[in-house]
Amino acid sequence: MDPASPDQQLELIDITQQPPSAGELQHALAQLGRKRLLNTSGQSYRALGAAAIQAMDDATLLAALASDGKLIKRPFLILDDGRTVTGFQQAEWDGLFS
Prior knowledge:
Elements: H1 22-37, H2 43-48, H3 50-55, H4 58-67, E1 76-78, E2 84-86, H5 90-96
Antiparallel strand pairs: 1-2
Helix pairs in contact: 1-4
């Protein structure tokens, strides 16, 4: 399906300005794990340091993600069926809209 078709409801949100909710992030963390959720190449991640982030428990990590959207891998997509997709992998995205 074409993502721009009238059948698709898309809401574009700049998560660096408006991070996902705590509930959305908790759901994404449970689905994806830390590796697929964290933007490990970003400035915010480097500023905190990998060791500090790895030492965080989930509650502390979720609070950090909710306060700094740059820590979240982008694009960040929540589908109507509840699946969360992060990063851009061509094959995965092709499958989402076909």
